[in-house]
Amino acid sequence: MNLRRSAREALRTQRERLKRLNQTAPPEPFSKWYKEDRKRHPDIPAASFDSQLCIICLEIITGKDSVRALSCRHIYHTACFDKWFKGYHDFCPVCHGRVVPEAESVTV
Ligand SMILES: [Zn+2]
Ligand SMILES: [Zn+2]
């Protein structure tokens, strides 16, 4: 087995994964997400938006924090989520929903 080659492969895979992540859940300020998500879900009581906990670092997400909002509506600090994602976790830490579409569908 060629170790150096597989390290390169891993790096490329990692870059592809991050690219897909940025397409699926681009980083945005929490305040922006909050405003848009309220528009998208006018039926959800405002109170449920007020405090969002980042389950990775267990800190409350506030105004200018950069977040990634997954399609399952779970949000995390961008830095926290990226650490999680780089550990080859392709799923949401809370609901285990897939973060990005299947890797197999990507043509390199
Ligand atoms: Zn966090
Ligand atoms: Zn989720």
How would you portray this structure in words?
The chain has a single domain, classed as 2-Layer Sandwich (Herpes Virus-1). The chain is α+β, with helices and mostly antiparallel strands and 108 residues long. The protein is elongated and about 55 Å long. The longest helix has 22 residues. β4 and β5 form a beta hairpin. The structure holds zinc ion (2 copies). The site of one zinc ion has 7 residues, from loops. One zinc ion binds next to β5. Keywords: Membrane, Metal-binding, Transmembrane, Transmembrane helix, Zinc, Zinc-finger. It is a single-pass membrane protein.
Low-confidence regions: none
Q: What is the CATH superfamily classification?
A: Zinc/RING finger domain, C3HC4 (zinc finger)
Give the ordered list of helices and strands. Answer: HEHHEEEEH
CATH class: Alpha Beta
**What is the percentage of strand-forming residues?**
5-15%
Q: How many structural domains in the coordinates?
A: 1
Number of strands: 5
Can you tell me the overall shape? elongated
Q: In order across it, which strands form the biggest sheet?
A: 1-4-5
Distance N to C terminus: 22 Å
In the CATH hierarchy, the third-tier topology is known as: Herpes Virus-1
Which structural class do the helices and strands define? alpha+beta
Quaternary state, please?
A: single chain
